[in-house]
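// run 5 | inverse folding | seed 20
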């Protein structure tokens, strides 16, 4: 009897996974999920209804657990609470300041503005949903690169981009308050290749609202290039929008998928529980480190 089956959602991205929750942490199941995530980018486990303990058990079976946002939590009690499962919410009981949640309403790749290996995978369980909005949209940046015309690939293949937390936050504030701006600028400015060649030879674009400045181009020309590539990557052929149901569990390859959340009712109590898998590939370096190298 087949333990696990995968049902493609779209030609270039996404599969639904059908597996008995009790068998989720079996080694052959975990390996099948790893392999499918590499090929499909996004995996949806419909209405799996994992508890935090079950999600953590699968996270640990899949790879090394990581919480890269805990340093951004100002309340020390909440920082300690968030070491295992990060609860994404707005309003009462929220872990992070709301601007970090609002920033997820724009295309991004997790962890690019953190000076560490890029998180390999993100895992999300739906605990409470908003009656409107709240879908998570995903875009396959492997496919976005591979389908670019040869001339465009050649033109951008060697470009490097400066990614800044401040750039992502410009989408959230009409004018960033001085105290918040100072905090955002404490995050490193990361120099990252626009086109990332991974160990298996596949190449992906590295994009998101945090991508701010293309080295060697004027600021406006670089910004235009970034926006056009985001639009290209997010076209329907390469993208999938997940309409959540309570209990859904979704994982994605953070090395080849960018994502964003559709705005939702901020008073709805929408609550998503996230765990992350540490990567072993360092994508970028801080500007100041490269300047002294």
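// decoded
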């Amino acid at each position: 009897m087949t333990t696990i089956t995968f049902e493609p959602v779209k030609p270039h991205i996404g599969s639904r996974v059908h597996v008995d929750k009790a068998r989720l942490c079996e080694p052959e199941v975990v390996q099948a999920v790893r392999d499918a995530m590499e090929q499909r980018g996004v995996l949806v486990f419909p209405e799996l209804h994992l508890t935090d303990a079950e999600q953590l058990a699968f996270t640990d079976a899949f790879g090394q657990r990581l919480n890269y946002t805990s340093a951004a939590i100002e309340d020390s009690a909440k920082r300690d609470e968030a070491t295992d499962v990060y609860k994404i919410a707005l309003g009462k009981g929220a872990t992070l300041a709301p601007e970090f949640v609002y920033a997820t309403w724009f295309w991004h790749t997790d962890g690019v503005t953190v000076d560490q290996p890029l998180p390999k995978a993100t895992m999300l369980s739906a605990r409470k949903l908003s009656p409107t909005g709240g879908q998570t949209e995903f875009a396959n940046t492997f496919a976005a690169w591979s389908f670019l015309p040869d001339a465009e690939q050649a033109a951008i293949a060697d470009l490097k981009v400066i990614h800044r937390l401040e750039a992502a936050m410009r989408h959230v504030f009409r004018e960033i308050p001085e105290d918040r701006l100072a905090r955002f600028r404490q995050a490193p400015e990361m120099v990252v290749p626009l086109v990332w060649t991974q160990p298996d030879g596949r190449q992906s674009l590295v994009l998101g609202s945090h991508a701010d400045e293309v080295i060697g181009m004027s600021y406006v020309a670089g910004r235009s290039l970034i926006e056009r590539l985001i639009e290209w990557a997010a076209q329907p052929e390469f993208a999938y929008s997940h309409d959540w149901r309570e209990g859904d569990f979704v994982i994605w390859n953070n090395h080849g998928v960018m994502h964003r959340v559709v705005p939702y009712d901020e008073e709805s109590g929408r609550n998503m529980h996230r765990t992350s898998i540490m990567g072993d590939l360092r994508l970028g370096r801080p500007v100041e480190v490269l300047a002294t190298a």
